[in-house]
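Section handout 9: paired folding examples.
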Amino acid sequence: MKSTNPCEIGSMLLEYGMLSELTGNPIYYEKCKAGIKALFARRNPETGLVGSAIDMGTAESLQKSIYKMWTLCGIEPELIDYSNMEICNPAYYARPEAIEATYYSWIFTGKEEYYYQGKTMFDSIEKYCQVENGYC
């Protein structure tokens, strides 16, 4: 099955847009932009939101799940089985989606718990990913 999620599509636009800039070949940006347009065309007509699998009424529950996943091993695992909270792939590939979701939860709700969740995530990146000349 070929699939992706809305966050990855947005991240890829930044990455492949830069690739187009660096190589002088606009094809990478154009292909990703077409993906964003296709995603936008499929948004819910009543709410304007993308993704029928996420009910915005459960967004806070989702945020708690994201934080639980992050803190399970000190940093976000690449793959987790939510049915039993078993980590299937403990690697961290520096994907920004979890921290971004926490930031927006804090901005939109004003609840400080989301600020502190984001701080915990940031601190774990500092702890586990910082090397002498940057981050890995």
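Moving on to protein 2 of 2.
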Amino acid sequence: MSKQSNNGRRHVILFGGFARMGGIESFFADLLEQAPCGENAPALDFVCWSDGAGAVRSKLPKDVVLHNSPVRWGCNYGIPDLLLVLRFLPVLLRAERIILGKQLTPAAGKWLLKLKRSGRLSAKIAYITPYRPKELWGELPPLADFELFDEIFVQAPEFADDLFEMGFRGDVHMVPYIPPRPQMLGEEGPRSPLRIGSLGRLAGQKNLYYLIDIVALLKQREPDLAFDVHIYGDGALRESLDQHAEKAGVANLLTFHGAVAREEVPAMISGCDLFLITSDTEGQCLVALEILSAGRPLIATAAGALPVILSSSTRGALIPFSDAAASAEIVAAMCKELNQGRRTRQSVINSYLEDYDTDTIAGEYARLFGW
């Protein structure tokens, strides 16, 4: 945990909107928990806007100084980000390094860039992108953002390639989000019926219609395979997904559990035998690391950093984006492996730790940030 130092160094995490504990919120909470102590460690400030400073405070180490703005109205116009920068400008101007938790809205970004060009803002600015750059910015390079950022952290080689192709000239670091430590809760499995899980928002990006199509073909082609599907998360598409499942004839196999509190995620993951991610787009996909850290195999589309995460077949398998028949065959093969005891939780965890050791990756962030 970080402790305030007396050496005059200050690092600021300029987070933007802190609405709920999603992947990027969880990452920064983990990052701050791993920040080292000592006389040479910088003091840490966390700057955000939210309607509940107490909720944010509860997620941060006690020695991190919280600067919170309650202004949330005008999100469509970037007003909360701009007011955040203006209100806590003295905090930003005295920083040695500013770490961006989310992409700033144009008005706030232009204000910081103006300060940087004038020389008033001397901090080195780092951005940890939660998405693939070309998905985040499109094909055209974001010239203002690229001038503002001194370094960008990405989670997959393709993400770094995007930045080079788009003309970014700063430092690019490929470091995954800080992964969770392994823990095996509950039984080894497999259960009967097998429990196939899905964890994430019920949003278009997650393409759960495709998951339902795969489940329908799995039921049709493997009539003797006993399984059911448990979907964790909430969102605007719940009713539409119910209707799609009914039309596909698999509504009886699906259970929608709604949102899951962060502290309940490990037990929920351990309560399933394998997981399926059918997203069209992803970034790091912290959920994938949480699944593997519990020893559960993962089958996923090749979105975002998922091909890197599933680079070892011991952890799971990749499926095509738009071939439900081929995907159903891959899921069926995994189910048979689990039923035959040919894939254990410990083997998944051992493979996961080869690339996702918590202390090693936290240490890499500390080294790059100069903590």
